[in-house]
Amino acid sequence: MYVYQYMMNQQKAIKLEQPTRNWLDLPPELMANILYRIGVVDIFESAEKVCTAWRKICKDPAMWMVVYMDGSTDPNGRLPLDKMCEYAIDRSKGQLVDITITEFDYAKILVYIAERSSRQLRRLTMARCYDIDYMDGIWTKALKKLPLLEELSLYETKITRRGIKTAGRYCSMLKTLKVNQEEYRLWDEYGYREFKAKKIINDRVAMAIGQNLHELRHLELIGNPMSNKGLGMILDGCHHLESLDLRACFFIDLDGDLGKRCLQQIKRVKLPYDSLEGCPFIYQNDGMTCDADDE
User: Fold this and answer.
1) What gap in Å lies between CA 35 and CA 74, rounded to an integer?
2) How far is CA 25 from the centre of its chain?
3) Is the separation of the CB atoms in 213 and 167 below 8 Å?
4) What is the CA 80 to chain-centroid distance, rounded?
5) Edge to edge, what strands does the sheet with 151-155 contain?
6) I need a labelling partner for 57 at 20 to 30 A (CA). Which of 66, 148, 167, 262 fits?
């Protein structure tokens, strides 16, 4: 009993001796790393209002070289999300190199990013930005201003043939392109014959890539409704491809010579019926099925 009481008293004494840590004493670079992880909305709505030191860190352009903006967030605050995104871009003062925006129905943000990044942007990711689908000139206007772009990743966000042509002309550093869609989900509803009848099968994007993006190293076209014709154009035009993702591209036939050529020409190929697990913004645990009677 006495031993137990002695040990308890010692533990209390040790706790009392431990100094209280002051967050303001943390090195600025460590504090910036912590603040970055809480997200753009919480920085604007809360963190930068805590104290002068935090506000100074939050205004440092280095804090905004990488931006992740989720448009599905509703902060119920003083600023609408599109304005928050613009402020985040402005705070980078031209140092923005990597930006991801999701669920934005504000197509002009793409041009805003291009104009305010001072041609330094290397990586652009957009997910579920549907409004851009209907504004053909937006891609052309934006991509002309992004000569150093190396990676363009689109998830349920479409790019036009004109946009791909612009990328081929002005984005000479582009090595990675992802145009991943969820159109494969319609397969279960319609089947192959209905897809073909509804003219959902098309090679426009695939052909534009093959004709204009000759320096690509990595290409993802998940859910693309291309046929063998479109795939052939890619193989003809993109001789430097090291990886090609054809998951959920159900209208290509790789059993013949085209399939052999594809596997011989490209080091890493993901096939139409390979699992989508791990694919951001696209994968769901509902599986992919295809009725053999519809093939």
Assistant:
1) 19
2) 35
3) yes
4) 22
5) 66-70, 98-102, 123-127, 151-155, 176-180, 218-220, 243-245, 268-270
6) 148
Percent of the chain clearing pLDDT 90 (strictly above): 43
Per-residue pLDDT tens over the stretch 152-169:
999 998 898 999 999 999
Please give the residue that has the higher pLDDT: either 222 or 194: 222
Contact present, 109 and 135 (Cβ < 8 Å):
no
Phi first, then psi, for residue 219 (nearest 5°) are -135, 125
For 103-151, what is each residue's pLDDT tens digit?
887 788 898 999 988 789 999 999 988 777 656 688 999 999 999 999 9
Task: Classify 100 as helix, strand or coil.
Answer: strand
Exposed, middle or buried by CB within 10 Å (0-12, 13-18, 19+), for 218? Answer: middle
258 burial (CB, 10 Å; 0-12 / 13-18 / 19+) is middle
User: How many angstroms separate the Cα of 250 from the Cα of each of 110, 114, 193?
Assistant: 31, 35, 12
* ∠ CA 261-187-136, rounded to 5°: 80
In Å, how far are 58, 176, 199, 219, 238 from 210, measured between CA atoms? 43, 14, 21, 11, 6
Report residue 241 as tokens. Answer: 């491809």
Mean of pLDDT over the chain? 80
